[in-house]
Structures are given as structure tokens and as C-alpha cells.
Amino acid sequence: MSSTRQERLQHVCGLHRSVLDLVRMERPVGNITIDGERKRYYEFVARDLYITVMRAFPIDPASITEMSTLKVSFEGRTVLHIRWCKGVYDIVTFKPGKWENKLIVG
Q: How do the pLDDT tens digits run along the chain, 106 residues long?
């Protein structure tokens, strides 16, 4: 993997952690089932920032093979969309910008 690609992945993983820190402050909206997979659904809204997280929530946590999904929208546009399972990340959309500054907790 090229150093630029590796740096991008590390940056997105850092954003992923920041988004999850924000979302953990909120209670889950609830549990949903999509294509037979259970997900715990979270939302976070702050002005122009809208975040949804669907974390895998299987009946048997030891057999987790389901993807979790995180989407960040800023000013009505998707700026980050990633899927992950067991530490393997799939970056669907990443558009760097001023929205990243809004993820700073504190």
C-alpha cells in the first residue's frame, strides 16, 4: 500500500474513532434488522452535521461477520461513508473538508 493511501486510511480511521466518540454520547435510537442482520442504530445531529451509525449487533457476538456502517453528512452532502468488520475498513466515500473540525469533542 502506498504511503499516501496508508496515510489516508489512518486519517479516516481517526475520523471513525472521533465520530464514534460523538455517537457514544447519544443513546441508541433502537435495533433494526436489515437483510436478516441485526444492527444497533444511532443518530447524532448538530446543525449541518448529521451522523448515522449502524453497528453489527448479532445474537451471538462470537460469530460476528456482519458489516457495521457509518455515514456523515455535512450541509446535506455525504462526506464520509465507511463500512467495517473485525478491523477491516471499506472507505465508500471520503471528502475532506471543514466538517472534520466539527468532530472535535470538548
A: 556 888 888 888 889 888 888 888 888 899 988 888 888 999 999 888 999 999 887 666 666 677 899 999 999 999 999 998 877 889 999 999 999 988 765 4
Find how far residue 5's CA is from the centre of its chain.
19
* Residues of the domain holding 26: 3-103
Three-class DSSP labels, the chain:
CCHHHHHHHHHHHHHHHHHHHHHHCCCCCEEEEECCEEEEEEEEEECCEEEEEEEECCCCHHHCCCCEEEEEEECCEEEEEEEEECCEEEEEEECCCHHHHHHCCC
pTM of the predicted protein model:
0.83
Number of domains in the chain: 1
